[in-house]
Amino acid sequence: MVTDDLIAFHRSFAEGGVGMTTVAYCCVSPEAASAPGQIVMNVAALLGLRKLTDAVHQAGAAISAQLGHAGVVAQRALTGVTAVAPSRFINPTSFAYCRAISTDEIRTVIKQFGSAAQVAVDAGFDAVELHFGHLYLPSSFLSPLINRRKDSYGGSIDNRSRLVREIAEHVRAVVNDQIAVIAKLDMDDGLPGSIWIDEALRTAQLLDGDATLDALELTQGSSVYKPMYLFRGDVPVREFATVMPPALRPAIRLFGKRTMGVYPYQNLYMLEAARQFVPVMSNTKLILLGGITDREHLETGLREGFDFLAMGRALLREPDRVNVMMAEPGSRSRCNHNNKCMVTVFGRTHCVLDPVQRYGAAATPDRGTPDLSVAEQLT
């Protein structure tokens, strides 16, 4: 459920100058959860969600709800049910078995996305973001590595794109023009034999032709294996080991880098791939993500033809980063991409370099106190 701390977390970004803050990750059903403490978009959460949207609006910003179904990323210990995938699959990180989802269950998932979107409308959100990335359930249908179905949802990329198109179409029908509909789409996930730019361009083209989306946020990486392909920069192996069960800690310390992947950080690290999508879009605006920390990065993205720019870790380090960039165009972000913030999602999401979070509000009483979010907020 929404807490006062979650409201303060998002209000801090609104007061810091962002145009829209995204509440991530919101589950379309209880079995769609990817981690503990996530909000399920249902009537029970409505009152708190309304308090959240009112607070962000009062601070001068818009607010979006990211809607997702974890699919292969879900854990039976958390949801109480076996995770589902397009085809039978063994998660290479958790070694958990995922069963193939049935056609009837696919229809149920599509309806769940629509119901969650209606909750977002009723709660006063300005947009929903459909999570079609990182090998969560919709994204896993796009992956030839995971999707080996023989029906109309498998085979060619047009067939593998069917689920994301049907979700987008249904959500648009539910919300009509009351709020914006955005989708987060993997350009590639960094896994051999899985999603790559050539087929992702076709998926984007199909979604654009359907004209069901207002904008497409382009992303990379996977929550299944080698997640550092999404984040880039330092690999917080030691920190991840401390939050794992004691029996797993030695293995994490020994093999963590191999499992998580090592990818150097660079500014605008998704731009090279994302610029391939600019000429493909006719009806849908594009959102650039990845390594955007300074004003010059925003200006570069706009010159390249993107309509919006998305920031994550830089805002976690400095919630007022946008205001600072506007007042001081040459200022540099204080985020150093140590990525230890990834581990804080198991408790209070925060930048480990912020003394307010690390040592308590008394250290610097003039700063806000953000609280629980989830990993997607970092991206």
UniProtKB/TrEMBL annotation:
- Tell me where in this chain the NADH:flavin oxidoreductase/NADH oxidase N-terminal domain is found: 4-192
- Origin superkingdom: Bacteria
The protein here is known as NADH:flavin oxidoreductase
Specify whether Oxidoreductase is a keyword of the entry.
Answer: yes
In terms of Gene3D superfamilies, this protein maps to:
Aldolase class I
> Which Pfam families does UniProt cross-reference here?
Oxidored_FMN
UniProt KW keywords = Flavoprotein, Oxidoreductase
- Which InterPro entries did the record assign? Aldolase_TIM, NADH_flavin_oxidoreductase, OxRdtase_FMN_N
User: What does the record give under GO molecular function?
Assistant: FMN binding; oxidoreductase activity
